[in-house]
Design goal:
CATH architecture of the largest domain: 3-Layer(aba) Sandwich
CATH topology of the largest domain: Rossmann fold
Bound molecules: S-adenosyl-L-homocysteine
Strand order of the largest sheet: 16-15-14-17-18-20-19
Order of helices and strands: EHEEEEEHEEEHHEEEEEHEHEHEHEHEE
Number of helices: 9
Distance between the termini: 66 Å
Shape: globular
Structural class: alpha/beta
Helix content: 25-40%
Number of domains: 3
Largest sheet: 7 strands, mixed
């Protein structure tokens, strides 16, 4: 294996366990490597940093797979996926879960979502793409799945010089499946749904609205397939309106409401949430609960201030749509906006809306997407419930 030597002055990040090594942290590469090859990484004093995959096309030059000198082969990946599965079993995520959450499972750039007997894979770096056959084999060995699907139709792959692609990694199967969550059923479109088809990271947070929605008039914006809204109806909301800009998502959401026998309470419409929030916040408030779960407003650091402005605006308007003493349920899924920044943005929104807010719940994503302390991008989801009162 080719050895890569790090500069003497590198960020303590690497020694402290962060798996990424940037090009400017490397002193020399002792030989020729092909993009995606495994390399042995050494600190400047010759001590082992670990083994990882290298890709000069990527800003992240090397992603470490292990801190030990060990053989990386099919058995290595089988073992890592078994360990990931053990963690989900121990923490109570078995039916549907993020089985592998990349860096947090010591499998950088690999995502595997489990939807009962079906699996969706994303290999987001060249180094892990090369091991896709071993990963599929490991899933077949551990789970004997009914189907495995690849959702590599994501733009981040181009940063690694990879094509965007999707398709079967098993015999073809019907990619429209139904999953159970918190006693409800949801249609999931593994082939054409957003991301891997379903947002598993909010599965615990959907239960967090249980008490506040009883008897309430609820508005959900950025609803996708209506998961939060259908939970609200099930938990006893009086009326629920969900809004998403995607016609496809709205069709699926209405189908989901019907599937659960809740379409008399829960309706979905295809509209631009920014317009709706803007227009309706000028009218007298008519909701008891407003739920916002927008997409990431930015994918790069340069635009964080724009993202913050966006979060502030929708949350301020959301607060104005609430009757006195109502609840705002607000999420943010970009890791570039830290939990502290998100909370202070909500504070600014409350100040400008002249509201007093009382924090009910503040969570991250569910524990099948574990946060590795020190690896900031694993701590990405913010989920907040506040009670909103007139001052
Ligand atoms: N709450 C959902 C996930 C929402 S993902 C769940 O738990 O499953 C964000 C959603 O925002 C996507 O469905 C996307 O179609 C929608 N969206 C993006 N821009 C929008 C806009 N301007 N107005 C309304 N919806 C929008």
């Amino acid at each position: 294996m080719i050895k890569v030597y790090l500069k003497q002055k590198i960020a303590p990040r690497i020694a402290n366990g962060h798996p990424w090594i940037y090009g400017n942290e490397v002193d020399r590469i002792a030989g020729n490597t092909e993009p995606g090859d495994l390399v042995e990484v050494r600190f400047s004093d010759g001590k082992l940093a670990g083994i990882g995959y290298i890709n000069p096309k990527s800003q992240i030059l090397i992603r470490l797979l292990t801190r030990k000198l060990q053989t990386i082969d099919e058995a290595f990946f089988l073992n890592r996926i078994k360990l990931a599965w053990q963690y989900r079993q121990k923490t109570g995520y078995t039916e549907n879960c993020r089985l592998v959450f990349g860096e947090a499972d010591l499998l950088p750039a690999l995502i595997i979502d489990k939807f009962n007997d079906y699996f969706v894979i994303q290999t987001l770096a060249l180094g892990i793409e090369k091991w896709k056959p071993s990963i599929v084999k490991a899933l077949n060995t551990i789970f004997s799945p009914k189907g495995i699907y690849e959702r590599n139709d994501v733009p981040v792959r181009t940063l690694e010089g990879l094509e965007q692609q999707k398709g079967f990694l098993s015999d073809p199967f019907n990619t429209q499946i139904i999953i159970n969550e918190n006693g409800l059923q949801f249609n999931v479109d593994l082939e054409n749904g957003q991301k891997t088809g379903y947002f598993l990271d909010q599965q615990d947070n959907r239960r967090a609205i249980q008490h506040i929605v009883k008897g309430a008039d609820v508005l959900g914006a950025f609803t996708y397939t209506g998961t939060f809204e259908i939970h609200a109806a099930q938990y006893g909301a009086k009326s629920v309106l969900g809004i998403d800009i995607s016609e496809q998502a709205v069709t699926q959401a209405n189908k989901n409401a019907e599937l659960n026998g809740l379409s008399h309470i829960c309706k979905f419409e295809a509209m631009n949430a920014f317009d709706v929030l803007k227009d309706w916040s000028k009218e007298p408030p008519k909701y008891d609960v407003v739920m916002l779960d927008p997409p990431a407003f930015t994918k790069n650091r340069e635009n964080i201030h724009k993202a913050v402005t966006g979060y502030k605006e929708i949350n301020l308007r959301g607060m104005k749509l609430l009757r006195n003493g109502g609840f705002l349920v607000s999420s943010s899924c970009t890791n570039l906006v830290s939990p502290d920044l998100f909370l202070s943005t909500i504070d600014m929104a409350a100040k400008d809306a002249k509201k007093r807010i009382r924090q009910v719940v503040f969570n991250a994503q569910s524990a099948d997407h574990p946060i590795i302390r020190g690896v900031d991008n694993t701590n990405y989801l913010k989920f907040l419930i506040v009670e909103v009162s007139d001052r």
